[in-house]
Amino acid sequence: MTPAARATSLTKVYGSGDTRVTALDAVDCEIAAGRFTAIMGPSGSGKSTLMHCLAGLDSVTSGQVWIGDTELSTLSDKALTRLRRDSVGFVFQAFNLVPTLTALENITLPLDIAGRRPDRGWLDTVVDTVGLRDRLGHRPSELSGGQQQRVACARALASRPTIVFADEPTGNLDSRSGAEVLGFLRRSVDEFGQTIVMVTHDPGAASYSDRVLFLADGRIVDEMASPTADSVLERMKAFEAARA
Amino acid sequence: MLRAALRSLLQHKLRLSLTLLAVVVGVAFVAGTYIFTDSLKRSFDALFEAPQPDVIVTVDAPDFGGGGPDAAPRETPTLPQSYIADVAAVDGVAAAYGLVSGDGAIVIDSDGMVVGAAGPPARGTTWIPDEAISPLTLVDGRGPQGPDEVALLESTAEAAGVEVGGRVRLETNGGSVEPLVVGVVTRGVSGSDGSTLAVFDLPTAQRLLLDSEPVVTGIQVRADEGVSQDVLAQRITAALPEDVRVQTGQQRSADIAERLEEAFQFINTFLLAFAFIALFVAVFLIYNTFSMLIAQRTRELALLRAVGASRGQVRRSVLLEALVLGILAAGIGLVGGVLVSRGLTLLLRAFGADLPSGPLVLEPRTVMVSLVVGVVVTLVSAYVPARRAAVVPPVAAMRDEVSLPNRSLWVRTGLGAVLLVVAVLTARAGLASVDDGERAASLAGVSALAALVAVIALAPVAGRGVLWVLGAPFSGSVVGRLARENGRRNPRRTAATASALAIGLALMTTIGVIAASTKASVATVIDDTIGADFVVFGAKFQPFVPDVYQAVKDTPGTAAVTFVRQVPITVDEEQSVLTGVEVAAFPLVVDFEMQSGSFADMALGDAVVDDATAETLGLEVGDRVEGTFVNGEAPLRLIGVYTAAGPYVGFVTGINTLSSIGSRELDSAVYVRVADGADPATVRTDLEAELAAFPAVELQDQASLKEQVNGQFDRVFGFIYALLALAVVVAFIGIVNTLALSVHERRREVGLLRAVGTSRPQVRRMVVLEAVLISVFGAALGVALGVVYGALLQRVLEPQGITELAIPTGQIWMFLALAVVGGLLAALWPAITASRLDVLRAIATE
Ligand SMILES: Nc1ncnc2c1ncn2[C@@H]1O[C@H](COP(=O)(O)OP(=O)(O)OP(=O)(O)O)[C@@H](O)[C@H]1O
Ligand SMILES: [Mg+2]
């Protein structure tokens, strides 16, 4: 089975001369389809950069990135936009929703942009899974932070993308709201076979995933299958100690 | 605080530069107006440097009639020629010269066309062969002598395309002549008011301009050396009968200077009105910019407050920014004023005024006014935003997502509703008092102002609904829905942006309605009163020789031909016109409605008068009317009253009565009715052939007359449109500015849209659509207001002859189309900026 996303010798350099930063240093990785992958690592290690490059939001300095069978470096802005619209879902840490649209309109936004009719059955399933049926007519300003993130998750899934990227989706949430969002992501993998990549700092959050990639200084330094909160924490402490 | 204010200005320089532009345009208009009128004034100085007679003797009465299409031709009162000798005999007089000057020497160019525009007169005057006192200076050739010589004003010679040594055709009161051009003269001022001037020696001037006895219109005197003007004037006054006016050269200069000053004051005020309209529109733009900048800086301001800045300090720091901006704008505006003043000159030239060219004059007053206007306008517009900035609570610094509390629109809406009621009531009161012109006009003015402010006040509330409706056709797509919601989400901002456009377009539409109504009214008058198939008029409203009547009468295919003569008449100090007609023939060609008395009974010494004049003068049938004419008085017996209509106003009498009064043998119009069965087109061709010998008359029918009159109105209204256009341009700058700021404010949202797959064209469409919705909203408000007040103004002006109401539908659609196109153009730059936003930068949490 082809991986949902794949990168080979992916390098990303910001700036030049004195201000030159190598955010990603020849990263090779595969994101397995139908799995929940977490990316962890210290601040500044390149997690967001990796995710942006994998998602076609940012250009790469060298190396190649595939989403499904499509290689991204050759695509025009137009094709990339279409790819993001049709094949990629996003959940950001904050400011995920368009304030002038209702919750439902936000969920169907990528479909509306594409001019596609939403699949009613699927939409119902997604809405019920996030548990927001009675809030669909509300504007984002009338929703709590956790509810807003759940709407964002629903949006990411509504168009049945090849892959969903989430950058610290629970970073701004309290533990209960965070658990709701993570539980939802987990279920979408288990029940609908969705592929999800999530960046997080929180070992607890990482424990919802099937596999954790550890990043440090722009390289993948380790990975762990079937993580638990404790095992992740342990591993991270070990890194800290090694670096010190 | 100064440093904070300056830094903030620099940080927002792009967005502020648009605001700056709006103030600059307004200030440049003000400065340009002053520079323009000052320079114009300066260029007339030469007039006063030219030589002057020491004493001028004229009749103690103003010129009679003059100018317009419904007034009698101008006639200048005359003195007996024998007075010249009387003046010359006065002790201290070195020389006395007779002068004849007046209308009635139409210059014809080599193509047989009349030189000069339709309005300004074709004047003739007398050459004073005395360099020391002649206001005319030769620039080429010599002064005219004898019956076959003429000198022309430089601009006249140029327009006619003749030089010294050539011949020029002149259509004069004394007939058609073609004298030798022996000189070209100047008055010291390069441009002209569009009038032409031909200069003859005295006997020739008398023959060609007056066509009458040895009389003169004035006597010009040179004093002996050492004799003062005042003393000489006293002596001359003593030597002459009482009915003459003796003026010194200095008095005359002062009189002319005063008249010029009045004219310049009028031009200045007229242009300034438009400058202030543009500035008023700019106020909305500045208000919007400062509101948005402050909304963006809420957290920064809260931080200032948290670290101990007082409300006053915060407010002052915002006002300080406005002050710096205002000074900057005033400075640039002053420079722009030079361009505007040049532009005004070009604009006026394009609309047919021949302006003198001279150096630009920048008075200290202009600098002061520009500075004050720029600073005051900016400060006033920034005041409300500054106050709102000061109320940002310090805790806002600690909050994550901050926005200024949006105060409720209730107060504003209430105020708007009250003003709307005031507008309706004053409009009704105005309509009820249409007969009292001044009262009606001021009530209409108050109503218009109240309605304008009401519309501005109500625009935020109305805007949400209107934009929802306007956006409905686009709401099928998410892009359309987003555009609509973006327009609706900040009602104040949208309203201020739209109001700016509404003001400009309201004025334009009002003018449009009045222009269309005026034309329609004139057309009705022409239809109603000119029953004739053809009319012959003199060029420049000049009367013409009776040979024209003979030529027309001899043309085959004409059933009835009649002529009229007009002279100015004064009754009880009221100026009017006395028209002499052929009693039998006149009613055959002109629709004429008698209210009382019988026109056909007209005998020598009888006259009829129109109802309006009868009312003004309190005249009744049977009254004896004492009329004063250019050179005397004569009584008229009133035998009837007719309904005033269009060009027929004043007194009408038989042509024999007019001749007995001593009118000139010159006709004002010849009316033609085509014979039954004759083809009008053939008759027209024949008439044109007959009239080819008379280049200074025009053959008109109803259609061509309407066309000519419409052409004149189009010029006037076109000029006003051009001046209002600047306000509309400022309003569109406002749309650019609002959108640019909105896009900047929403860059995260745009980034998010891009991240989830919105294409660049979709983002552009969204911004463009928002702009078009806002500008159509503004245009719709403006057009609605303009139509209502155009109609009201028409009713108020009804007694002035604007009897028909016409709504220029085509033009109104054009304005709305203009709003769409303007909105599109205004959105171009913000839309491109929005579509090029860096997705990652936009979504990055700050
Ligand atoms: N636009 C940019 N320009 C220059 N350097 C950048 C840019 N974006 C990221 N970097 C640098 O690249 C490196 C990786 O950044 P990245 O945002 O991927 O880290 P991260 O692992 O997501 O950190 P965090 O956990 O704090 O979100 C950092 O050193 C950062 O400073
Ligand atoms: Mg990050």
What is the topological layout?
The complex is a heterodimer of chains A (about 240) and B (about 850).
Chain A: E1 5-14, E2 21-31, E3 36-40, H1 47-54, E4 62-67, E5 70-71, H2 77-87, E6 88-91, H3 103-107, H4 109-114, H5 120-130, H6 145-158, E7 163-167, H7 175-192, E8 196-199, H8 203-206, E9 211-216, E10 219-225, H9 229-243
Helix pairs in contact in A: 5-6, 6-7
Chain B: H1 2-11, H2 13-43, H3 45-49, E1 55-59, E2 79-80, H4 82-88, E3 93-99, E4 102-103, E5 105-108, E6 122-126, E7 137-141, E8 149-153, H5 154-160, E9 169-172, E10 175-177, E11 180-186, E12 196-200, H6 202-210, E13 215-216, E14 218-223, H7 229-239, E15 244-248, H8 249-296, H9 298-306, H10 311-350, H11 364-390, H12 410-432, H13 437-471, H14 478-489, H15 491-529, E16 534-538, H16 547-553, E17 558-571, E18 574-581, H17 586-589, E19 594-597, E20 606-610, H18 611-617, E21 624-629, E22 632-642, E23 651-654, H19 655-661, E24 669-674, H20 680-691, E25 697-700, H21 702-745, H22 747-755, H23 760-796, H24 809-835, H25 839-843
Parallel strand pairs in B: 6-12, 8-11, 18-23, 20-22
Antiparallel strand pairs in B: 1-14, 1-15, 2-13, 3-14, 4-6, 5-9, 7-11, 8-12, 9-10, 16-24, 16-25, 17-18, 17-24, 19-22, 20-23, 21-22
The complex binds adenosine-5'-triphosphate and magnesium ion.
Magnesium ion binds near residues 47 and 48 of chain A.
Description:
The complex is a heterodimer of chains A (244) and B (846). With 244 residues, chain A is an alpha/beta fold. Chain A has a single domain, classed as Rossmann fold (3-Layer(aba) Sandwich). Chain A has helices at residues 47-54, 77-87, 103-107, 109-114, 120-130, 145-158, 175-192, 203-206, 229-243, and strands at 5-14, 21-31, 36-40, 62-67, 70-71, 88-91, 163-167, 196-199, 211-216, 219-225. In chain A, the strands form 2 sheets. In chain A, strands 6-7-8-3-9-10 form a 6-stranded mixed sheet, with helices on both faces. In chain A, strands 2-1-4-5 form a 4-stranded antiparallel sheet, with helices on one face. In chain A, a hairpin with a 2-residue loop joins β9 (211-216) and β10. The relative contact order of chain A is 0.18. The mean pLDDT of chain A is 87. Chain B is of the alpha+beta class. Chain B is 56% helix and 16% strand. In chain B, strands 16, 17, 18, 19, 20, 21, 22, 23, 24 and 25 form a 10-stranded mixed sheet that branches. Chain B has a 6-stranded mixed sheet with strand order 4-6-12-8-11-7. In chain B, strands 3-14-1-15 form a 4-stranded antiparallel sheet. In chain B, α2 (13-43) runs antiparallel to α21. Chain B starts with a helix and ends with a helix. Residues 400-404 of chain B have low confidence and may be disordered. Classes of the chains: A alpha/beta (244), B alpha+beta (846). The structure holds adenosine-5'-triphosphate and magnesium ion.
